[in-house]
Amino acid sequence: MASNAKFNFKQSINAALADKQLRANFKFATDALRGKRLAVFSDPVETAHLRKVGNGLKRNVLTKLPQLLEQLEAKCKENGITVHWAETVDEANNIVLDLMEKHSAHKMVKGKSMVSEEMHLNKFLEDKGKLPLETDLGEYIIQLNNEPPSHIIVPAVHKNRKQIAQIFADNIPGVSYTEDTSELLVIARRQLREHYRTADIGLSGVNFAIAESGTLCLVENEGNGRMCTAVPPVHVALMGLEKVVEKLEDIPPLYRLLCGSATGQRITTYFNMIKGPRKPGEKDGPKEVHLIILDNGRSKILADKQLRQTLQCIRCGTCLNHCPVYTRIGGHAYGSTYPGPIGEILMPQVEGLDKKGSLPTASSLCNACEEVCPVMIPIPNLIRRLRDESYDMDGDGVVKGHGYKKSLVETMVWKGWKLTQVNSTCNKLMLMGVQWFGNMLPKVGPLKAWTSVRTSPKFARQSLKDLAKKEGIRNE
After folding, report:
1. What order of strands is seen across the sheet that includes strand 215-220?
2. Per residue in 242-266, pLDDT tens?
3. Which of 28, 165, 361, 427 has the most C-beta neighbours closer than 10 Å?
4. Can you say whether residue 80 is alpha, beta or left, with left for phi > 0 and alpha for psi between -120 and 50 degrees?
């Protein structure tokens, strides 16, 4: 993604709003996703109970996260999984590179992983002469077109069938343009299956990591996750440290919430439970399994009792589908790994308000995201918190880059406002000044956008007098 120094959020939004095809694609896709979710969660009482359970499970995890991560590490080691800890994305990237170098690996097949997007892993490996290949169909499409994902769950949601057909024709040798979706799937399958067979290393994300047993759970629909984790001789799993759960029995409600919220399914086609490398006598599976647990600012988020609710997220993407801002501008307009409501609260905490503080402004605070969040994250409240911290420079803020918006002029204006509200004489003088100033505001120049649709106090009073005279109302 472009660096914040070059990225202009306002310009990006205007460009997205001007793209009629993009808006049509998002309307079609998000309308369908909302409809599917509603069909699965049709009983409001059952849904409310399930969300409450999910919220409780995630809150419980966050209260004892350090202990659960230590337990997960111990159990994974017992199962033969090598555990690596990465405080930053640079550390995580170098761990992946070291593993590839250790095994003389050139080609990596990747299952869907938002953590790898957070790390910008593909670019990092490409710069080192490696070949990372996305195998999730949506990720494969946008990789061909040299784009980042536009959605957490549906990476190519911003593309329609014709656009995808053109991407295939332009980027896959020997492929002719076709809009037949079945043929497009055959083309993708034919390309990817050869890569599974010849890849030196496979990589996946982790949806849930069970602390009590050291089991890595992977949710998918296409089978590519199973191919990436079982066919290559080495499997590398990436996870943010918040993905741990305490017990196996915690999985069903969270899995139900994830599937229903993300794709409108009661259960996905595949649910992989990985508990270690191939054992003696087994005919398939990787010879080595490595788990990389990434922090990247999450520990600091965890330390704040309010902001830690951000880490409850199970990456279902339903807040994006219901956000009136996201559904009109799409994910790329945010210029961040995580777009939409969840991105508005996560990215400023990870990268700093001074770099991503504009994201929380992209919200109408309509509460749609909170109403559908499967684990009941109070996203609007956290957006307000981050907006407040953007102006706080007195040491009370905890988010990196807090106070970056504060200015002397604005500070003086608010102090003046406070004075007019606590002192009656100042209040009276202020009202007289506002009335005079309001009558003098021009309907041209820099204030035109505001004054052209408003009536001056003087004109408003005269209008009321004229109306009273017309209606025969005496002015007492």
Report:
1. 244-245, 208-210, 215-220, 270-274
2. 999 999 999 999 999 999 999 999 9
3. 165
4. left
